[in-house]
Amino acid sequence: MPTVAVLAFDGMAPFELGCVVEFFGLPRPELDVPWYDLKVCAETAEPLRVVGGFTMQAAHGLDVLAGAGTVIVPGVADVRGEVSGELVEALRQAHGRGARMVSICSGAFALAAAGLLDGREATTHWRYADLLQRRFPAVRVNPSVLYVDGGDVLTSAGSAAGLDLLVHLVRTDHGPNVANAVARRLVVAPHREGGQAQFIEAAVTPVADDGGVARAMGWALDHLAEPIGVADLAAVAHMSQRSFIRHFKRQTGTSPLRWVISQRVAASLPMLESTAAPVEEVGAAVGFESPATFRHHFTRAMRTSPSAYRRAFGP
User: Which positions ≥6 away from 307 have C-beta within 8 Å?
Assistant: First the structure.
């Protein structure tokens, strides 16, 4: 089983750690795939204070963290404080051995302190983005996105975005069917692209919208194989194009056309997994106008080509 190590620390909030435990620490025999071996690690064997008034002890030290296949840092105690030399060394050792390094929310400060984000694009919670950039100017901080997948180093925004990144990790390791099953069990979204905006102005549909955006999204899902433009979506929503784009961005955090592209990529996955149809036919079946366009958007979203994806997860 692949080993996942998550850092626990004094003064931590429990939510992010709990999310990691839910994803990687619970047995999932119903999925019939090798699951993860989760190790909770800390710099000390002493009890750790947790926000909310309780304590916990980690069973493993930084030596286990340094030897894991995936290392997750769910935060830091103080975004303005220094990261200990011991933790910096353990993070560098893990990365040097080829571990996949992951941060949630303020955990990016620990990866940055270890130099693992130098020259890379990274994200963190929007309220910490300016501080991360000031403290670590070699990092290209993107304050707008849910998460950034840099291959061997991945960073995510605030707590909920951490869930999106954890689903993404499972999808990368085991494919969409397993990721969707885990997401369903946890009642979270099965897939949100990392480039989606962190901050959504209105999570609840405004009264003035009267369900127009939802209606347009439902229509688009039923017509993915056809050409879809903003004008088509706005017409279904009974709005002007300008008003539709504004309402759509407020409610979803992304643009209408970017959302359509993500849905087309998602719709192509089952076809690549379960059929031998040529890649060109798969792309056309979900609405991409050319094989080159399909490959471009698929690779951008999935970090691999359609053909490589089929070799990994296909029949």
Answer: 279
**How confident is the model over 73-128, as pLDDT tens digits?**
999 999 999 999 999 999 999 999 999 999 999 999 999 999 999 999 999 998 99
| In contact, 143 and 135? CB cutoff 8 Å | no
Give which of 110, 114, 24, 98 is closest to 74, Cα–Cα.
Answer: 110
Backbone dihedral angles phi then psi of residue 233, each to the nearest 5 degrees = -65, -45
What are the residue ranges of helices labelled H in 223-305? 230-237, 241-252, 256-274, 279-285, 291-302
Neighbouring residues of 267: CB distance < 8 A, sequence distance ≥ 6: 224, 286
Residue 192: per-residue pLDDT: 67
Task: Name the one residue in this structure whose structure tokens are 């002493």.
Answer: 46
- Which tens digit of pLDDT belongs to each residue from 136-179? 999 999 988 889 999 999 999 988 889 999 999 998 898 888 88
| Cα 253 from chain centroid (whole Å) | 15
Its sign, for the CA torsion 168, 170, 173, 174, is negative
Q: Which two structure tokens, joined as six digits, stand for 150?
A: 């840099």
Q: What is the chain's alpha carbon radius of gyration, rounded to the nearest angstrom?
A: 21
175 Cβ neighbours under 8 A, 6+ residues apart:
269, 273, 312, 313
CA-to-CA distance for 89 and 75, rounded, in angstroms? 17
Residue 160: its pLDDT value, please?
A: 84
Strands 100-103 and 70-73, by their bridges, are parallel
Q: What is the pLDDT of residue 45?
A: 94
Phi, psi of 310 (to 5 degrees): -65, -40
